[in-house]
Specification:
With about 425 residues, the chain is of the alpha+beta class. The protein is built from 14 helices and 10 strands.
């Protein structure tokens, strides 16, 4: 008994048919790519099949909802309700797991791991799932779709940058000769205010909340794909640009780091523009005669050009990649892989030499280590309470370490004392 009845439910159409249990498992694993239609699920499932396979896993599904068990049982995937029903004797996969496939030569059997987003619900009752599905469909259908990037990269962000920079420029007395920390803090404060201010066009959320909402899920998926690439011998397929997950799937760490750099670039550019205008108009200190409306009329289109130029400029720190291409690849759920030779930083470093000799790709990641140490710019904590708790733990750990070092010095111990060897 190895076949099951598979039901796939889209927003306006249901599909049913018989399928091998292992292919139903792959369909569940493919939900890690957050498909919302059967065609998107078909593309996503190719991440969990042999690289050389040409067969369509769902080619035998037909329109209609037939949920009577077949052979080993029933599997229901409701893409709208984010519900999976597994009533099968073949297998019982969950939101985290692995499926078996082959390497790029079709010879070695390898596990490919997956992690579904946290809002997927798994049930195991094939007779009472419909009421749950309809309730969840009603809840999710009532949520309006948010195009966050139109706000975070578009005119709302550019207007905020221009308006707040002008306000700071008009009221402050910072000059090039002044304290550099104050000059830097002015930009940091504007940046933090943008990230932490709730907005109506973000459904009363602040930009930081929106950008961190799905980061953990994306990072788990990219880590799974990195392991798959190493084991399978080639990069797994990415998401289609037309897919819902690419357009609305959230922000990963690489995009968050790139976005931080973009905001700082825009702040510097707007500040320099104001200094230039002051000099052109021969004003004694600040362009107090400017109104926000007058300034935004010309500054927002100029910042649009600055934004696009920055996003499309190759960066030697990132193997001459552009920020836009790094963001685009992460949104497609594709790891950043280079050869060992490309990854060498110091040719005289033994570790770099060993890395160059190792088979397979070398993956590189951005972690935000150069970003300001402040809650607004933290990538790993959803709430201020979580961030502050970690700060307290870190401070306590630092105090204990300092006390231990002081005690060691008092006792005349060194890091390589005989007591430790």
């Amino acid at each position: 008994m190895s076949d099951v009845r598979l039901v796939v439910r889209e927003a306006g159409q249901d599909w049913s048919g018989r399928i091998h249990g292992s292919d139903a498992d792959r369909a569940i694993a493919a939900l890690s790519a957050d498909p919302v239609t059967l065609p998107e699920l078909e593309v996503a499932v190719t991440r969990f099949t042999e690289p050389t396979t040409q067969r369509r896993l769902f080619g035998h599904l037909t329109r209609g909802l037939r949920d009577e068990p077949y052979d080993a049982g029933l599997v229901v995937i409701d893409l709208v309700a984010r519900l999976v029903v597994i009533d099968s004797t073949y297998s019982s996969p969950g939101p985290v797991g692995s499926v078996r496939t082959r390497d790029d030569q079709g010879e070695t059997d390898i596990p490919v791991t997956y992690h579904l987003a946290d809002n997927w619900l798994f049930l195991h009752d094939g007779n009472a799932w419909r009421a749950v599905a309809e309730a969840r469909r009603g809840e999710r259908t009532g949520c309006s779709l948010l195009d966050a990037r139109a706000v975070l990269y578009g005119r709302p962000m550019l207007e905020f940058i221009a308006r707040e920079t002008l306000a700071t420029f008009q009221r402050d007395t910072i000059t090039d000769a002044d304290d550099a920390d104050r000059f830097y803090d002015a930009f940091k404060n504007i940046h933090a205010a943008w990230l932490l201010t709730p907005r109506d066009d973000l459904q009363s959320a602040c930009p930081r909340e929106v950008m961190l909402e799905r980061r953990d899920h994306l990072m788990r998926d990219l880590q799974d794909r990195s392991q798959q690439w190493s084991r399978q011998g080639e990069c797994p397929p990415g998401l289609e640009e037309s897919s819902f997950a690419f357009r609305h799937g959230g922000f990963g760490t690489h995009e968050l780091v790139m976005y931080y750099g973009l905001i700082r670039e825009l702040l510097w550019s707007s500040w320099d523009r104001l200094k230039g205008l002051s000099e052109e108009l021969h004003l004694s200190d600040r362009p107090k005669s400017f109104t926000a409306g007058d300034f935004l009329t010309t500054e927002v289109p100029r910042l649009e050009r600055v934004r696009d130029e920055w996003l499309d400029t190759p960066d030697p720190e990132y193997h001459m990649r552009t920020p836009r291409s790094i963001i685009h690849r992460e949104r497609r759920r594709l790891p950043e892989g280079v050869s060992g030779e490309e990854a060498i930083i110091d040719p005289d470093c033994p570790c770099c030499q060993m890395m160059c000799d190792m088979p397979g790709p070398v993956f590189w990641h951005l972690d935000g280590s150069e970003m300001d140490h402040d809650f607004a710019f933290d990538l790993y904590h959803q709430t201020r309470e979580e961030w502050e708790e970690e700060q307290r733990e870190w401070e306590e750990s630092s105090r204990r370490f300092a006390a231990e070092q002081e005690e060691r010095q008092r006792l005349g111990l060194t890091d390589c004392s005989s007591d430790e060897l």
